[in-house]
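Incident review: delayed structure delivery

Summary: a single-chain prediction request sat in the queue longer than the usual turnaround. Root cause was a stuck worker, restarted by the on-call engineer. No data loss occurred. The affected request and its eventual output are reproduced below so the record is complete for anyone auditing the incident later.

Affected input:
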Amino acid sequence: MAPAGGPVEPLDSGLLAAASPEERLRLLNSARDGLSSTEAAHRLSRFGPNEPVRPAASHPLRAFASQFTHTLALLLWFAGGLAFAAGLPELGGAIVAVVAVNGIFAFVQEYRAEQVVASLMRRVAVRARVVRDGVVSTLPASDIVPGDVVRLAAGDMVPADCTVLESDSLTVDLSMLTGESAPVERSAASAPASDFDAPSLLPASSGVVTGTALAVVWATGAASSIGQVAALVEGVKRDTSMLEQQVAALSRFTAVAAVFSGAVTLALAGAFTETSFVPALTFATGVIVALVPEGLLPTLSVSLAIGARRMAERGAAVRRLSAVEVVGSVTVICTDKTGTLTENSLTVEGVTGLDGVDGATNESLLAAVLCNDATEEESGVSGDPLDVALWHWAVTNGIDVADARLRHPRLATVPFDARTRYMEVSCNGERGPRRYVKGAPEAILALIHAGAMPDIVGGAIEAATGRGARVLLLASGDDPGPLTITGLAVFSDPPRAGVRDALAACHAAGIRVVMLTGDHPNTARAVARTIHLAEGELPVAEGPEIDQMSDAGLRRFLARNAVVARVDPQQKLRIVQVLQAAGEVVVVTGDGVNDAPALRAADVGVAMGRRGTEVAKQAADIVLSDDNFATIVAAIEEGRSIRANIRRFISYVFTSNVAEMTPFLLYIFLPVPLGLAVIQALAIDVGTDLLPALGLGAERPSPRAMAVPPEPPARPLLTRALGLRTFFFFGVVEAALGMAGFFAYYTAAGWRFGDSFGPFGDIAHEATTVTFLAIVGGQVACLFAQRDGTLWRRLSLRTNRWIVAGLAFELLLAATLVYVPGLNGVFSMAPVAAKWLLVLPAAGLAFLAMDELRRLVAQRLGR
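Output delivered after worker restart:
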């Protein structure tokens, strides 16, 4: 066990590179059996968490201040200034209060949204196998300290700057530092080199491509190589997402429209009425306030956070919030087969020899357990599923794996590579070194220069792959010397439950699916047919065929659901790039280190959480907890739902803006009193609209979400159809209901059409109160009208607790503003008789009736 005290700080990389493995441990005050838990805790407090790249979190005060300086907030500050200039300090104060309440609410909601994302990030953070107290444990990389001893294997991400103590066929990807994607060999060899030119040094965040290693950590956090790079780019501002750009554009448009409308109102009031400048300025202020959707920005951030959390609940943990926006626009899914479309619960059906007899020979059993990287742990056998299946098959046939490996120790290894598609080991045999190889049949044949496939083996391959089984050829021979085929292993891997329904959902949603697999083309074709990948003809090509296609030819091949077998990582990357160049929005799934380039290039990279390597997970935008294709489809459904929800609450908040602005326009052009006070418009926007809008942002996916083609990410949030429905139907209906309530109150008091309103000046506050209640009733109905499905589904409160809370708050606040003494005076309201409260349900029912009529007409017109 390592002594206490910790390494000298800072350590020189050249000193470590020139030292022997044992000297490296001594310099870092560590040992091969790792640090003690006590010493690790001490070093963690000394060096801090191993977090070289932290999200660019702004200071809380800066984040708080930003809620008062965005476009819509600045517009309200302007309106407040106009109110003070007009000699209305009460109104100005109310506007300032609204800005304050809205800013505080937005800050709290965005903070909660950040917490949701941070929680998801913790779920998919890099993890490493660390030796502590002599025991190997899997820990978050953030807990690693200098002196920790870590075990690395192919697919792992190096968790901190390390130096190698021992290795076996170790190569790493240093592209994150050098930009060169070719794997680089690394070992424990001593060399007088500095930085990461030394063969023993592994930089943080590099990926292990092949082999295994035992290494000791020498720099963490900001002191690591990746931490120093992060410091250089700390001030670089991240690009805004498409959704952020669209919301910003909508905010700017709203601001310009509000100021323009206010100026026009001021000019019209002066030109067409006898209103003096101060009241006209008040009306202009009212128009500006009525047009500002105060709750838009906080509702947006909460909606995205809710969507990310719901994706996580369905098994898709989001690493980048922008993926929540993009995934709903996906047009093509490039998915691997094994473990995503199939169960990845491999079992060996049997091994066929050159004599055509099914059975286990000694050579095939030795090849199965010696050319195999699976290991036995307390929890069972772990490793690649193919290796695990071969292990269990050998044990079933009487092989003691530990004894076989002890009698035939490994001398050298050629690790499996996705490009060569085989693995080879050299072991001590009874008569000297002996080679054992396993891999794709055609790769093994090329390796042993066997020419044509033996008829018996070829027939077995055709029979096995024709029913969807996987095949692996085993071979052995003296080293040096020729290799001889010892058997063909046949593996069964059943399709995942639910994958047919998920593919059917993709077909209905206009999403193409391309299967990319390293398996035999017959296996891929059989599995594709079993799961109904395509409804008609199924194009199948192999990787080498893809290389012979031009980009135009490849686009034509990928124009429908297709299968690409024997595909390598470079071909997978090219397929993604060709699809993107054609305007497709592409999801790519992957689990290995070789999948990382395609995962990064994709619009949305999806890594497997169970079998996926750390490199793949960190390259992806979404990590699946169950490795299931159906979960990808569920994530797409959630992504579509989020965009639909954003449109719902945009329509909802702008509907009330039309109803609020109408009384000011009528006052200017008709001889009627002002039907709604400015402060009452503020009460509607912030008080009664905000929480219900949040409820719309949390709507569950509509049954129709996956029944329409995908839309491009750049499609505007406020489309022409939505704008027409919002401003010229919902807004007009709600405005009519509000003014109907206003005139109904005057009529009940004795006013008749054509009479002067002068004698009824003492009921002005009661009349505007009824206008307020009618608009609130219309907004309650608008909340349900924005939902999807049948009328009863839209009216249901069981599926969305946010809407229940929002409605309860909206109605309670409306009653409070009307009937609480003192408070009603601040909001220019007055208590009305209980019968006038019926305006709320009456306006709501009228609004719903008009909406049902609209839907019926649209249905009849086929829209």
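Verification: The CA atoms of residues 29 and 707 lie 62 Å apart.
Action items: add queue-age alerting; document worker restart procedure.
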